[in-house]
Each structure stands twice: as structure tokens, then as C-alpha cells.
From TrEMBL:
Metallo-beta-lactamase domain ranges (all copies): 12-196
Keywords: Hydrolase, Metal-binding, Zinc
Protein name (Swiss-Prot/TrEMBL): Glyoxylase, beta-lactamase superfamily II
SUPFAM superfamilies: Metallo-hydrolase/oxidoreductase
SMART domains per UniProt: Lactamase_B
Highest taxon in the source lineage: Bacteria
UniProt KW Nuclease keyword: no
Pfam families for this protein: Lactamase_B (PF00753)
Cofactor field: Zn(2+)
PANTHER family named among the record's database cross-references: HYDROXYACYLGLUTATHIONE HYDROLASE GLOC
GO terms for MF: hydrolase activity; metal ion binding
Length: 217
């Protein structure tokens, strides 16, 4: 599996394509594409690289991570859209405030299935482990691919920072517990692709993240 990333919308949100190199099937995670140019960039990358989009995944459902959900489902019709059930209220609240955040053309989309911790997600010959990591959002999950030592982490852990916990459903202690149990238990070389900012590693954050001093070794 390889990872291709895009940075979209006013929140500089990271959208990821997870590509199964054997079959060229791919999953789109957290599509933040809102402007037409952003949507075209995603569509053109898929086409020019001979990819087959087969799955839409959300780590969580804050507005910056779901702006492109409906675009993806319209562009590649019939693909499953999976979200943890605890974040359904987060997703369904987006239309109530999207215009106030500068996204009046937001189009909502409903999941077709749910993500469950411990139940793998598969596409092509790739299998992702779903890990439940609430704290930033009630139904936040991360996706771990052990063969390539990669985590698609959403807004849980950033380079030298962690996700905010002042939004509805957020909780600082819960987020720290999620990081401790779901990310700090992974090998230090594991690459974390976050929802904002550059990629980092578990070891780098264990040693140098000021929010994780209790885990630093």
C-alpha cells in the first residue's frame, strides 16, 4: 500500500488516497475538497494514475474532513462510505453550521456502513486495522497498516501537537488515553499521516511531543 496526500480547503486539511499497488484499487480518506479546482485535482490524480476508487472512509466527521464526501460518492457512484456510528451526530450537524464557516455549498452525504474497532477494512489486497481513538471527536478512528508501518491518524496526533478537544464531544483526558493505547503502543518507526500538517512517526512524538511528556522515554 502507498499513500498519496492532498491539502484542501481553508483549514489546510489532509486528504489521503490509500493505494493497493497490486490491484490499483484505492480508498479515499477524509476528502476535504470543496472548491472545483480541489475536486478536479483529486479526480485527475485518480485518472492519471489508473486508480479504481472503491471505498470512502472518514476518520471522523468534522466539517473540514467531510466537505468532499458527496463529491466522491457522485464521481465514483456505488462505493461504500464508512464512518464510526458514534460520529453520526457529528456528521449530521455539519449542515447546521457549514455556511457560517464559509462553505454554503456543502452537500451532506450519509454513510452506507459503519467502522467498528477490531473489524478490518479491506480493498484490493490491502487490509487496514480500525482502531477506536476518541477524544477529538466521539467516533474518531485511525487506520493502521502493519505491513507498511503506516497510520492514517486524522486529528488525534500531530507533529509536536495533538488534536483540539474544545469542540462538541471532545475530551482532553480521553484523547490522551487514545494516544497512549492506540498509537504509543505501535513501533517507533510507524509513520503517522495526520489530518493537518506534515507526517511524523510514533517514536518522534514519543520523544519530543510536549503534550505527551508522560509517554516520553
Amino acid at each position: 500500500m502507498t499513500v498519496a496526500g492532498f491539502t484542501f480547503n481553508a483549514f489546510s486539511e489532509n486528504t489521503y488516497l490509500l493505494i493497493d499497488e497490486t490491484t490499483r484499487q484505492c480508498a479515499i480518506v477524509d476528502p476535504g475538497c470543496y472548491e472545483v479546482a480541489e475536486q478536479q485535482a483529486l479526480r485527475q490524480y485518480v485518472a492519471s494514475n489508473g486508480l479504481q476508487v472503491v471505498l470512502l472512509l472518514n476518520t471522523h466527521a468534522h466539517i473540514d474532513h467531510v466537505l468532499g464526501n458527496q463529491f466522491v460518492l457522485t464521481t465514483w457512484p456505488g462505493i461504500p462510505f464508512l464512518l464510526h456510528r458514534f460520529d453520526l451526530p457529528t456528521l449530521r450537524a455539519v449542515p447546521t453550521y457549514a455556511a457560517n464557516y464559509g462553505f454554503p455549498q456543502y452537500q451532506p452525504a450519509e454513510p452506507t456502513g459503519e467502522l467498528v474497532a477490531g473489524q478490518p477494512v479491506r480493498f484490493g489486497e490491502t487490509e487496514l486495522e480500525v482502531r477506536f481513538a476518541p477524544g477529538h471527536a466521539p467516533g474518531h478512528v485511525v487506520f493502521y497498516h502493519e505491513p507498511t508501518s503506516v497510520v492514517i491518524g486524522g486529528d488525534v496526533l500531530f507533529q509536536r501537537s495533538i488534536g483540539r478537544t474544545d469542540l462538541p464531544g471532545g475530551d482532553h483526558a480521553t484523547l490522551l488515553h487514545s494516544i497512549e493505547t492506540e498509537l504509543m503502543t505501535l513501533p517507533d518507526a510507524t509513520v503517522v499521516y495526520p489530518g493537518h500538517g506534515p507526517a511524523t512517526t510514533v517514536g518522534e512524538e514519543r520523544r519530543g511531543n510536549p503534550f505527551l511528556t508522560s509517554f516520553n522515554k
